[in-house]
Design brief:
- Helix content is about 20%, strand content about 25%.
- It folds into two domains: about 150 residues, S-adenosyl-l-methionine hydroxide adenosyltransferase, N-terminal (Rossmann fold, 3-Layer(aba) Sandwich), CATH 3.40.50.10790; about 100 residues, Beta Barrel (Elongation Factor Tu (Ef-tu), domain 3).
- With about 260 residues, it is an alpha+beta fold.
- The longest helix is centred in the middle third of the chain and has 14 residues.
- Helix 1 runs parallel beside helix 4.
- The N and C termini lie far apart (about 50 Å).
- It is elongated, with a radius of gyration of 21 Å.
- The protein contains five helices and 16 strands.
- Strands 8, 9, 10, 11, 12, 13, 14, 15 and 16 form a nine-stranded mixed beta sheet that branches. A seven-stranded mixed beta sheet has the order 2-1-3-5-4-6-7, covered by helices on one side.
- Strand 8 and strand 9 form a beta hairpin.
Length: about 260
């Protein structure tokens, strides 16, 4: 199985061209689209999206992830082995959440140019480089035969929750904003276990204080009051009933959030 995650959209020829190359080399390949609607050039959004779902796939899955504003430059082509799966893409941080989930992940710089397309466009490595490599992996090519192992792969400095200046609260950050305007924070059950909600926690984001914590959307009465809940990706999120929390909070990725428990 080969999954595809890109910022190509579906209006142009890019996605079918990538699929055509894969199927030309391996007609039996099962191709699954994760998404092609990553905002253009937004590597961090791609990294989060991949990180939120790759572990739901069976062992042996090959994930082809291409959000590649550095296409044509000297950035490396890499294959990563992690959690019994393989990842193909540019060495630009797109696999940061994979590395975070599996510290034993192994990355290889692909140097076997004979595995690429006969003609390699300087602007479409998704078709001419990454797709052929993914197809060869699906046919049994071993990662160590593609190039050499590297340890200096690119990864984002993912914001880890930390004690705030007061020493009472925990500071995190908004790491993703989804299509509904929900703000996913870096806070997990490690910082706030749902069983501790009786302690009246408070989450501060910008100038807004969130005091309502729910288990699901419908638990919150219809209003424009923001609330927090533990999302399906394992992070605490901020939402507004049938509205955009990001718009209400004026939130952007990287915005600081602070969690305090036992607040009045």
């Amino acid at each position: 199985m080969i999954t595809l995650l890109t910022d190509f959209g579906t209006a142009d020829y890019f996605v079918p061209a990538v699929k055509g190359v894969i199927l030309s080399l391996n007609p039996q390949a099962a191709i699954v689209d994760l998404t092609h609607e990553i905002p253009a050039h937004d590597i961090e959004a791609a990294a989060f999206t991949l990180g939120a779902c790759w572990h739901n796939f069976p062992p042996g899955t090959i994930h082809l992830a291409v959000v590649d504003p550095g296409v044509g430059s000297e950035r490396r082509v890499i294959v990563v082995e992690a959690g019994g799966q393989m990842f193909v893409g540019p060495d630009n941080g797109i696999f940061s959440y994979v590395y975070a989930r599996d510290p034993a992940a192994r990355a290889y710089h692909v140097t076997r140019g004979d595995l690429f397309g006969h003609v390699v466009s300087a602007t479409f490595h998704g078709r001419d480089v990454f797709a052929p490599v993914a197809a060869h992996l699906s046919l049994g090519a071993r990662t160590e035969s593609l190039g050499y192992k590297i340890s200096n792969f690119q990864r984002f400095d993912l914001p880890a929750p930390a004690p705030d200046e007061s020493g009472v609260g925990v500071t995190g950050a908004i790491i993703h904003i989804d299509r509904f305007g929900n703000c996913i924070t870096s806070l997990t059950t490690h910082e706030l276990n749902p069983a501790a909600l009786k302690e009246n926690p408070k989450l501060t984001a910008g100038h807004h204080e969130i005091k309502r914590f729910c288990t699901h959307y419908a638990q919150m009465p219809a209003s424009d009051e923001p609330f927090a809940y533990l999302g399906s990706a394992g992070y605490w999120e901020i939402a507004v009933w049938q509205g955009s929390a990001a718009r209400m909070l004026g939130a952007q990725r990287g915005m600081k959030v602070t969690l305090n428990c036992g607040a009045s």
